[in-house]
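Ops channel
N.P.: pipeline sanity check, posting one input/output pair.
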């Protein structure tokens, strides 16, 4: 399980940098609303930070699951809403739920078992 979270965090981190770069360049050809571009940037920043958090949390299954679900829902819904607000309007309520999952992940790190130091997997 910890290896899956480790790999997920690393892949999500790579994707976050790519999506952030796209938001700073190519996306501007399709989206002009600065608030939408700001939302995209927020999504990429939260994804990047929580990708690192997922590496740290990879030996804590509760935190790992919450970070994975939270990034997917929070950042994923913001990306979708930026690309096509009308089509993905139903994802509006998903963003704050994802945010709550991210908060829950940090709290799971705060109160979960940590063992004798962090034991990161060797993938
Ligand atoms: C940006 O995201 C927020 C939710 O985090 C949403 O309420 C707002 O409508 C979005 N803005 C635009 C222009 O899509």
């Amino acid at each position: 399980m910890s290896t899956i979270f480790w790999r997920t965090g690393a892949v999500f981190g790579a994707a976050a940098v790519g999506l952030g770069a796209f938001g700073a360049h190519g996306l501007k050809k399709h989206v002009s609303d600065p608030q939408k571009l700001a939302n995209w940037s927020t999504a990429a920043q939260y994804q990047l930070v929580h990708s690192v958090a997922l590496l740290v949390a990879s030996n804590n299954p509760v935190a790992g699951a919450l970070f994975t679900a939270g990034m997917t829902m929070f950042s994923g819904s913001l990306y979708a809403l930026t690309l096509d607000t009308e089509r993905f309007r139903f994802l509006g309520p998903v963003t704050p739920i994802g945010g709550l999952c991210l908060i829950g992940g940090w709290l799971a790190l705060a109160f979960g078992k940590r063992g004798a130091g962090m034991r990161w997997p060797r993938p």
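N.P.: looks fine end to end. Residues 2-111 form one domain.
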